[in-house]
Amino acid sequence: MTGSTGTPQRHEGWRWAPRRMAQGAAVSMLVAAVVGTAAIGGTGSGGRGSRSKSTTTTTTTAKLAATATTTSTAPTTAATEASDDVADDAGTAVKERADFGSKFAEWNTTRNVLRTELNLTMGPAAAQRSGVKGTGIDVALIDTGVAPVKHINTADALVNGPDLSLDRQAGMPASVDGYGHGTHLAGIIAGRDAGVAPGSRIVNMKVGASDGAVDVSQVIAAIDWTVAHRKDAGMNIRVINLAYGTDSEQLYTASPLTHAVESAWRNGIVVVVSAGNDAGALTNPATDPYVITVGSVDTNDPYNAADDALAPFSAVGTAARGVDVLAPGTSITSLRVPAGMVDTLYPESRAVFDLYTKGSGTSQSAAWVSGAVALLLQARPELTPDEVKALLRTTARPLTGVAANAQGGGVIDITKALATPTPPNSKQTFKKSTGTGPIEASRGTAHLSADDGSILSGEIDVMGQAWVGSTWAPKSTAGTAWSGGTWNGNTWAGSDFDPSLTVDGVVWSARTWRSASWNARTWRADLWAARTWRSELWAARTWRGDGWA
Prior knowledge:
- By secondary structure, the protein is of the alpha/beta class.
- The protein has a single domain (1-97, 111-549), classed as Rossmann fold, CATH 3.40.50.200.
- The chain contains 15 helices and 22 strands.
- The strands form seven sheets. Strands 3, 4, 5, 6, 7, 8, 9 and 10 form an eight-stranded mixed beta sheet that branches.
- Helix 8 (256-266) links the parallel strand 6 (237-242) and strand 7.
- Helix 6 (181-190) packs parallel to helix 10 (362-379) and helix 8 (256-266) packs parallel to helix 15 (469-478).
- The longest helix is centred in the last third of the chain and has 18 residues, at 362-379.
- The radius of gyration is 21 Å and the shape is globular.
């Protein structure tokens, strides 16, 4: 990478030896995040959530890798206990993934990639020194939640939207990340230690359960809530980070999911989505031409731009719709959730004296771009989503020998983007999505199943409510799909913030939106066979930062 070569901060760590493959066991289990732990690095005070072995199995198997550096001390007690549970189901899991760890072995690099290094070499550090830190910009993170850990659990760094996940319905504390994915991305975007935009604030929109379970209807509901509340008192949501996607082949012009992200875009929110991690087709909604679709660059040595390469897992799309830009996505260190799912299954992912976690994937790249967008919008708040996208694409640095659809403009250049006038004719004129296609088609192969073998499919949402796209789509476009705590005819959340900073026994510095119990039939997170965040079992491409490396 280009730029200054200052010494990285000691608190984020130094270079490490080559990594080995982590052989994480694949099971269905719910692991609670560290509840009430304000500082990372100590022993988590949380514990295990409820767990039940599922009698159903996934319909397809992913052969993916989890890569990791072995620098950690002994696991916490909670992690050790959870590991014992993992062993119970390991035999079946090993058979299902006989060549586990081989497909993406090339994700390995020889070292951690520190956020501080990337900030120095890719422009954020210079912007931050000039006072551009993303201050005043809210980034809605639609993901697995955020844990109340050090460097993110402050009132200026985090606000909790409604918890729309199955964890909440299974009795888990509202908004807490029990998986580790959302917290990792939050640290990349807005971590007060080394985030790209450490002055921005995360709006925590939890939809993914601690085992990764989620339905597309929950994601759409979260997008709609973000649009409806983007300008609430004390809120300024200008960015959505959506590191989620399904393998749906539904046309973007009909898909409810693409319609939802387009509605956010047309209501002034820059939507940043991950391209996908299967080195081929883009996921849905990354196929939508309006949003910013982000692929991954392997920076190798962050101080040497000449060795930058397209990450081998990064989705490339087609000539008709490819990636828009690239950003760092290999072995990125960020905030860790002690005793979370990633931390338990992949203890080797712990990095820098166990203070952080390493992760690889286009999820991490999307988070990097979301932070960059926050910087741009603080410096130039008048920019529209179309103008932000045009700036990032036209100022990016192309990689030699990489196809246009695989990289778009190339590797984003924050310094150049901040200094470049808005390109003329930035307005996008693609055909718009109607959103009236079947929601079932938006799911692709990512279906949820319960302990009784029931599959969530067809024209219903996660509550079993009938889905009528022609009724929902105009409301989504207008930003009125939510009425108080009601969405698609059912109560999904409360209608205001909880005045207490202690919610469900968790002490937050951030405000938390009231959650609600769902009266309709739900799909308990600890019983699901469809693990849509779980990279080691689920082939439907969803949130995955597939390499916990």
